[in-house]
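Record format v2
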Amino acid sequence: MTKPGAEFGEMHWLMDVLQSIDVGLVILDRDYKIQLWNSFMENHSGLCPDDVHDKPLFESFTDIPETWFRQKAEPVFELKTRTFTIWEQRPYLFKFKNSRPITGRSSTMYQNSSIMPLESIDGTVNHICLIIYDVTDIAVNQKDLTNANGHLAYLSQIDNLTELLNREFWEKEFKREHKRCIRTSTPCSLVMFDIDNFKTINNNHGHQAGDEVIRTLASMVRQTARETDICGRYGGEEFSILLVDTDATAATNFTERLRKKVAGLVVNIEEHEIQFTISAGIAEYSKKFEKPSLWLEAAEKALTHAKNNGRNKTTVYQSKE
Amino acid sequence: MGAYAMTMSLTEDQRDCYQEITNVAMGQAADRLARLLNVYVILPIPKVNMISASELHMALAGTTVSDNVSAVCQGFIGSGIAGEALLVFNDASFSDLAQLMNYKGPLDRHGELELLMDVSSVLIGACIHGLGEQIEVSFNQGHPVVLGQHCHVDDLVKSGNHQWSQTLAIEIHYEIEDVNISCDLLLLFTEDSVAKINQQVDYLLD
């Protein structure tokens, strides 16, 4: 075979590769008219090269936002630099179907793209090459991971019986709120309360009933509290609520409303009708609570006082000074 | 002194040469950025160091004034030389950047991502290209990856399971005149690339 023949053969293979390679190749001229359209593009779009040849890209594909695309492509012409887009910016440039239409979990193909300058013999750039990569699997996996992490974060923060914050996360929020109180002068009150004689409920009606009582109380807390209040299950039958922007008087109103609602409540479990009460202790933030633990102790002291004075009561912590 | 004996450290001459090469490359990058944005870009002298994995975090932390940053990285490879370019943006830069780039959309997380990608394409691309031109290597660029948005510098690069112990780091700090925009470009070369670049550099030094 003569040398030109060999070169022709090589050229032929190269064209074959460009045609069948599993990435999209599009060549655009200075007016964004399509000059080359490989078979990846043909097969996924359903448009053959003759359909799109010499037609402006934005006419054939109205999904592509023109200003946006020009912003990515102009530097390629002007600065001879390669630019990139990723699926996080825009899931796709060309709206193609997922290449795995049966088992795939996304209806469209996620795409990364890269735009590179094609230099003419005189060194100017009159054409650019747009390369389209199918990154559907990566994108779907990444989204799954983000969702899973979000769900894990939720699970690690929430008590699953009451769906209130669990103790660990509540304490984290409490510490943060304590820091905020030190900085600002807005009032904030801490309410600690628990179910009176909870052991008797468990002993008389069983633990299932006890759980139901806790669940009912938690839903009552959610109904009574504002969105900004930080409610947690502190222990077995003990709850804690941080009332943001609330002084002791307003906190007492809130707690009394909750206490009275609970006292009037009847929980029906199978044939049992259970009535129960709660006792609460309130401590408004004061400068002498230098550490969060001191604030918590004050509320616990008030709670103990309420318990020792007949239960079904609310006590506000009074400083000894 | 041969490059082979000095794979893990740099001679003064080599360091100077790296600095010179980077100066030219980042000058080209700055020129393109200036043309893209129509502004004057201030260039300091690049810092060239061999750093260990633990020092990378320090180098990153040292790059930005504020804690919250957004970053993009992009791998490059050619003629046995491989590395990554890391572009770290101070989050405070975005509003001024949006104005310069004539970005009209809302400046939310998504808008910032657009700006991040646009600027990094130009800056990283030009710098890698300029560097390659001088050491006569044509680099292949991988696709850029967002390392994080609005995150703490420490969280950009996960520590612990690095495949390397030392890297050649070139730090370039870009600032734009009269506006509150600053970003850092870190060029990091793998251990086994260093000997190869040193060879090229020694060749230039001769």
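Chain A touches chain B through 16 residues (CB under 8 Å).
The two ends of chain A are 107 Å apart (CA to CA).
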